[in-house]
Amino acid sequence: MNTGLNSSVNPAAPRLLIADDEPLLRRHLQALLAEFWPEAQTTLAEDGAVALTLCQQQQFDVAFLDIQMPGLDGLQLLRELRRLPAPPLVVFSTAYNQHAVSAFELEAVDYLLKPLEEARLQQCITRLQQRLSQQQKPQANLLHLQQLLSQLLPTAAGTLPLNEAPEVKAATSETEPLRWIKASQRDTIHLLDVADVDFFLAEDKYTTVDSAGQQYLIRTSIATLEQQLDPQLYWRIHRGCIVRVKSILKVERDEFGHMTLVLKNNPTELAVSRAYQHLFRQH
């Protein structure tokens, strides 16, 4: 998403766009916004194409988008909005939660599920107000924030910029080991300290990140993670699993020579393939 200053943003009277092909639903959201954000000015669009045209003709601070709309759906619309010189902040309002990962990868500010909960919408409005307020700060402050984020999520030279990057980056011999990961849990994106992760487990197209029994999802492969993690602190124990060494309580071996890891604060037991059993042999 374009991170340049939006010179027309007025936190006292922000301009909001609602795009939804269901008239009753967009009117309902309009009524809620009028109640909880009365100073905002709201414009309605009946589909994605109309919303795109409106955004090309005039500037909005926030766009509330349905995902499943005829023609140009919400995710496609967000990709088009990203091309604008000063794109609006985007919030998805949808009845479907399976698009949450894609939405946050495109840097949507929030993801609201229908039917809308008033308390949840109020949280979203607070978040938007904070973001709009930040856009009023001097450019130097924004650059400083970007530098801090870059330190939290280090990128390798030649990779995508922070605002278009996946949850982790490919490491090179010159980069430090991975320290932070952006991972999804239901409709929320979490910034996880790698030091708190017990293990990574490959699951179909995703990788499960397990921290103290809580599971999160990322799209980074085990092979890529192995290159990014500190090999002294994280060991690969079979083709689909990497474990944090400090999380291991003990290693159990059965009569057939199979090894299983028992973790300290996690109920999951992890199998060790024969190719990696040498890591746990006494010397």
TrEMBL record:
Domain HTH LytTR-type: 181-283
Residues bearing PTM 4-aspartylphosphate: 66
InterPro entries (alphabetical): CheY-like_superfamily, LytR-like, LytTR_DNA-bd_dom, Sig_transdc_resp-reg_receiver
Keywords on record: Phosphoprotein, Two-component regulatory system
One Pfam family per UniProt: LytTR
Domain named Response regulatory: residues: 15-129
Keyword Phosphoprotein found: yes
Keyword Plastid: no
Domain of life of the native organism: Bacteria
PANTHER family xref list: STAGE 0 SPORULATION PROTEIN A HOMOLOG, TRANSCRIPTIONAL REGULATOR-RELATED
Full protein name: LytR/AlgR family response regulator transcription factor
Organism: Rheinheimera tilapiae
